[in-house]
Specification:
The protein has one domain: Glycosyltransferase (Alpha/alpha barrel), CATH 1.50.10. The chain is built from 13 helices and 9 strands. The chain has helices at about 15-35, 60-70, 75-85, 90-95, 100-115, 120-135, 170-180, 180-195, 235-250, 255-270, 295-310, 310-335, 365-375, and strands at about 40, 45-50, 135-140, 145, 160, 210, 220, 350, 355-360. The longest helix has 22 residues, at about 310-335. The two termini are about 30 Å apart.
């Protein structure tokens, strides 16, 4: 079976080797996972979540990248990805479980399917999702609300989180698709709020900002999945690296590009010798044995895109940094020789404060690793763009 894409550009030998091994491994693991929704690997097996879980888009998104990049129509990746998209209809039409992660879920399913294959059903799903995301916008605070109250008495109506920077590209796609500039206005307004309230002067990033939902004023900063309100959660930093870079690409605004560079410089300055981040750059030393490989993979994708947007004399620094992270993930964190492990990349940390899914493969780490390889190889459609 030839699993090398015809459209492949010249890439380093390790990139093509990693791609070949990824295709082979996912071909095996997909036989069990099928049209399920994996999140974290436990004991070598990906635990499958309900379709409404925020990570539901990453497995089908990974499959779409492999489908296009492998160039082999006989592989089952497209069929499984489309089955996942169909299963998400119960979430989209059920409405009650929708929150800001709409972008993660339908950008990596319906948007990418529509970009590759057309089809009105996928287009309608993605536009529905974009409208629901737009409906979460708080006009007073200029932010997209994060979660719904999942338990009785909970009030998170004023919460915004840095993760949403990666959901905003869905609005830019909807604007291009419909010609309706309202999507752009809301996307830019939310990212302006990110600049104002999430990015510190040193380039570190807050996870959660709570606004007064009535006045729009900042009420407090919340640590969330980081160690504390003033720590530097590495995956939150990675969301900002990539999200701000995408905002710069979609809007051509220098403010977003400058902020993306600022956050990237902070991220890179904090990396250990093997270029894969600890879970929180300002966590106590005794916890820093925990890495978050998913943060590294996400940031690497942002750095590779950033290299395309900056002046030529700056580009190689960002591209080399992104490639260095991905190469370390492959050589030092890859599980390609471990038949008993379904995850591709080891040592992710999902939620240290709640002691959940620590030091395990995470599906979004796998996704961004594959996207990073796809960027290095060329010839593959990137969903967020």
């Amino acid at each position: 079976m030839n699993i090398t894409a015809a459209s492949q550009i010249e890439a380093a030998p390790w990139v093509n080797e990693a791609w070949e091994q990824t295709v082979s491994k996912v071909l095996r693991t997909s036989a069990r996972i099928g049209a399920g929704f994996p999140h974290a690997s436990q004991g070598g097996t990906y635990v499958l979540e309900a379709p409404h879980w925020w990570t539901a888009g990453f497995w089908p998104g990974l499959l779409w990248l492999l489908h296009e990049g492998a160039g082999d129509a006989n592989l089952p990746f497209r069929q499984i990805a489309e089955e996942c998209e169909l299963k998400l209809d119960e979430v989209l039409d059920g409405y009650d479980r929708l929150d800001h992660d709409i972008g993660f879920m339908w950008t990596l399913t319906s948007v990418i399917n529509y970009k590759l294959n057309g089809g009105e059903a996928s287009r309608r799903r993605a536009l529905k999702a974009a409208n629901y995301l737009m409906g979460r916008f708080n006009l007073k605070g200029n932010f997209i609300r994060a979660w719904n109250p999942w338990s009785e008495g909970e009030d998170n109506s004023g919460w915004a989180i840095i993760d949403c920077a990666m959901n905003v590209p869905l609005l830019h796609w909807a604007a291009r698709e419909t010609g309706d500039s309202r999507y752009i206005h809301l996307a830019e307004a939310h990212m302006d709020t990110v600049l104002k309230h999430f990015i510190r002067k040193d380039g570190s990033v807050r996870h959660i900002v709570r606004f007064d939902p009535q006045s729009g004023e900042v009420a407090e900063y919340i640590g969330g999945q980081g160690f504390g309100p003033e720590s530097a959660w590495s995956r939150g930093t990675a969301w900002a690296v990539y999200g701000l870079t995408l905002a710069a690409k979609h809007t051509d605004r220098q403010e977003f590009l400058d902020a993306a560079k600022q956050v990237s410089h902070f991220f890179l300055s904090q990396l250990p010798e093997d270029s894969v981040p600890v879970w929180d750059f300002r966590a106590p030393e005794e916890t820093k044995w925990l890495r978050d490989s998913s943060a590294g993979a996400c940031a690497a994708c942002g750095l590779l895109l950033l290299a395309e947007l900056v002046p030529a004399e700056e580009a190689s620094g960002y591209r080399n940094a992104g490639e260095r992270i991905l190469k370390s993930l492959y050589q030092n964190y890859g599980s390609f020789d471990q038949d008993g492990e379904e995850g591709l990349i080891l040592h992710g940390t999902s939620h240290y404060p709640e002691r959940k899914n620590m030091d395990v493969p995470l599906i979004y780490g796998d996704y961004f690793f594959v996207e990073g390889l796809a960027r290095l190889r060329g010839g593959v459609t990137i969903p967020w763009e």
